[in-house]
Specification:
single chain; alpha+beta; Aminopeptidase; eight-stranded mixed β-sheet; two-stranded parallel sheet; 10 strands; 25% helix; globular; binds coenzyme A
Length: 194
């Protein structure tokens, strides 16, 4: 299946049947996301099936990102050389990442994470961004949490000191940005065109 990843448009994207297994992620998408995006607190990007004709398009997965700042003392010294006088390190926070249950295990979660990382790179071309951060959340069972940690570790994320659930990566370690608007990717071709 090829996925289209595009900015969330409540008039275009159908979220009512989305279920990922985490109530907090489901409720955020169905109840809160529209308002938070309208108020400028977050930006959502959703994956849809390129083969789906017509509108609305079913949301198969999504992520949400927002601007963030973290105190220099909370970040390992090697990640913030020559910290600014403000002692605040600018970043992008990935607040949500989820895939509908019917589409899990096919690579879409990884595709969405790579897309979010590229959005951070793009943001870093127009304003100061040093880090990308996220909280490992949504998984109820220990085994799932451990799996999530290894997933993010495989993409280069590591925990903040004393905060094992909050992970970060420096912008320089992210994949280079690709130009353009929405992206279309195959599940087995995470590096394809944007
Ligand atoms: C986590 C999630 C987004 C992964 O989506 P996906 O499309 O199934 O993931 P992929 O097929 O691309 O697999 C990528 C990695 O995700 C991790 N993963 C997949 N399903 C997972 C699950 N149920 N629990 C924990 N980690 C999982 C694995 O590490 C996997 O890599 P691996 O197959 O090499 O072990 C999806 O399971 C989900 O929506 N879970 C509920 C919400 C949630 O926990 N969000 C994470 C917030 S930090």
């Amino acid at each position: 299946m090829a996925y289209r990843i595009e900015a969330f448009d409540p008039g275009l994207h159908d979220t009512k049947d989305f279920r990922c297994g985490s109530d907090s992620q489901d409720n955020f998408l169905r109840r809160t996301a529209k308002r938070q995006q309208r108020d400028g607190y977050t930006r959502l990007y959703v994956a849809t099936d390129t083969a789906q004709a017509g509108e609305p398009r079913a949301c198969l997965g999504f992520y949400a990102i927002n601007a963030h700042a973290i105190g220099v003392a909370d970040v390992p010294a090697d990640a913030v050389p020559r910290a600014p006088r403000s002692n605040l390190i600018p970043g992008v926070f990935l607040s949500h990442l989820a895939v509908d249950r019917r589409h899990q295990g096919k690579g879409l979660g990884r595709i969405l994470l790579v897309d979010a990382m590229q959005q951070c790179q793009r943001a870093g071309q127009i304003l100061g961004v040093r880090l990308m951060l996220l909280d490992v959340a949504g998984a109820a069972r220990d085994a799932e949490r451990a799996r999530l940690h290894s997933f993010y570790a495989s993409m280069g994320f590591r925990p903040l000191p004393g905060r094992p659930e909050r992970l970060f990566i420096t912008l320089s370690a992210l994949p280079p940005p690709q130009s353009g608007g929405s992206s279309i990717r195959g599940a087995d071709a995470a590096g394809s065109s944007r």
